[in-house]
Amino acid sequence: MYLNYFGLQAEPFSIAPDPNFLYLSERHQEALAHLSYGLQGSGGFILLTGEVGTGKTTVSRALLEQLPEQTRTAFILNPMLNETELLATLCDEFGIRYAKRNITNKRLTDKLSEFLLQAHAEGEQCVVLIDEAQHLRPQVLEQLRLLTNLETNQSKLLRVILIGQPELQDLLRRRELRQLAQRITARYHLLPLQESDTERYINYRLQVAGAQRALFDKSALRLVHHYSGGIPRRLNLLCDRALLAAYNDQVQVVGRAQIRHAAKELDADAGNRHPRFHPLGAAAVALLVLVLSAAASFWYQHSSPAQEAAAVPAETSKQAGVRQLLRAWQLPQPAADRALCDWVTDYQLGCIKGRLRFDRIVALNLPVVLELQGDEWQWVEDPQTLPDERWTGEFLAFYPHPPGYTLADATTYQNWLQRQLQSYAAAPGQELSSLTQALQQQHGLPVTAELDALTLAWLASHHTGMGPRMQRPANGEAN
Asked: Global pTM?
């Protein structure tokens, strides 16, 4: 209805996976780099997880487009299969002929093994991509692991890409799947778009659709990011409804009123069963200030079967604090057998503990937890509110790893680091230590002249466009 009104040639915010509208944010590019690296390695399994609508399918399609011509691919879009159905589906996808009567797992496995060996002899790589993999049964995953046992001295003959929601991480931590989990050579957890990427995403799709001018004002872009939480699918739905609202209101540019109207409509359509997600949990939340004991992973590491069998106690402030911090980053429940700071590295996040002035902590622009005396926790929504007087000065936060930081090839990370530090150079050819010291002095960080975790956290927070940020209301008005 609104295409002619806005001079558009196509629907800019259709949720159909049209490759013409493909937009890869920094996070999507990072995910793509991890998956590509995994396919080049010698492992059998690659893992991509993320919340609903974050763009996992977008990344997988981009990956498949980059695969060399000598790649044979099999897609499993319905993971609700048993072992026999899985093997038969793989044979169908790879074009392997087999007798439909009296099929057995062994016959199907033999057919697949013969095909994989022949493909390898012809210089072809075989890849299986499974979407919604959190629904796979453990027995089916084990069957996949057995298929990847076929290998040469250099590599596996079959690569499996598992794509799913965060529950997939929990599934793979089951004891009977520990051998499969050890074979995952590349993994990435896709987080929602940051506000800057949200703006670029919207403007890019409008441009592809034929827009000759800006159709959303700046305040509307900020508000649509708030209501969507940076989730692309939700962004598409909101923007489509907002354009329709602007057409009905006969205004030339979408403003905050149209965004609010669209959000109310979507909430009404959902029956209010799915509340909006905000990266920090509330509209005006600028900082998660919670009380943290020195060991943030205590809750997940010290439970016992006897305790689990007992009545579930009320949630403590410690438990609530860890839960809120994880929710800010859209992370699943941590592994029980790993320290929290070690576990978050699986999600391309770093962990920083230290002592810093409160205003400098606010300047980090990251969700943090603070340690208070008395083993208690406090949550302060307003960053202008000083912490409890019992604050020890200690804090803990997660921060996004810079691009390329977790890849074997450090070139991307080194180039990124050089670009960020170059603005602090007083003269050409300054050493890294001098540039780092200048950054620390300018932003009130402890001056060590070393690229320590705190300095890297500041750089990553302000220059990667990744991770939840403090959402300050414009002109004192809550969104």
From this structure: 0.64
